[in-house]
C-alpha cells in the first residue's frame, strides 16, 4: 500500500469536488480508509508544495509519483486509491 498525497487550495471548486468524491468512495469502501492519505494545502505548506512538480490542483501523488493533476472526476479519484492499493487501474496525468 502506498501513500496518497493530495495537493489542494482552500476555496478551489475542483478541490472541493475531488474531496467530495473521496468521501463518497471512503464511505462505500471503508477498507480504503487504511490507505495513508496526506492532504496538503499548498498555501499553508508552501515550501513543501513547492518541492513537487505540478501546476494545477487538485493534484494527486501516489508513492511519490504524480498520477493525476487538475479537475478530477469520481473515476479519477477511484483510480488514485486503486493505484495506492496497487490494484489494476488506469490512471493518467
How would you describe the overall organization of this protein?
The protein is α+β, with helices and mostly antiparallel strands and 93 residues long. The chain is built from 3 helices and 4 strands. The protein has helices at residues 13-28, 46-50, 74-84, and strands spanning 4-8, 37-41, 59-62, 65-69.
List the total number of helices: 3
Determine Rg (CA atoms, Å): 12 Å
Poorly predicted regions are 89-93
Order of helices and strands: EHEHEEH
Q: Please indicate the percent range of residues in DSSP E strands (runs of 2 or more).
A: 15-25%
Structural class: alpha+beta
Judging from the principal axes of the Cα atoms, what is the shape?
globular
Widest beta sheet: strand line-up: 2-1-3-4
The biggest sheet, with number of strands, parallel, antiparallel or mixed sense and barrel status, is: 4 strands, mixed
Could you tell me the number of beta strands? 4
**Relative helix content:** 25-40%
Distance between the termini: 20 Å
Mean pLDDT: 92
Amino acid at each position: 500500500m502506498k501513500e496518497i498525497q493530495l495537493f489542494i487550495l482552500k476555496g478551489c471548486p475542483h478541490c472541493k469536488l475531488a474531496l467530495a468524491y473521496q468521501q463518497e468512495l471512503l464511505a462505500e469502501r471503508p477498507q480504503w480508509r487504511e490507505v495513508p492519505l496526506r492532504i496538503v494545502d499548498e498555501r499553508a505548506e508552501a515550501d513543501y508544495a513547492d518541492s513537487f512538480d505540478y501546476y494545477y490542483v487538485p493534484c494527486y501523488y501516489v508513492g511519490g509519483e504524480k498520477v493525476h493533476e487538475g479537475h478530477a472526476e469520481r473515476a479519477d479519484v477511484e483510480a488514485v486509491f486503486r493505484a495506492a492499493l496497487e490494484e489494476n487501474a488506469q490512471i493518467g496525468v
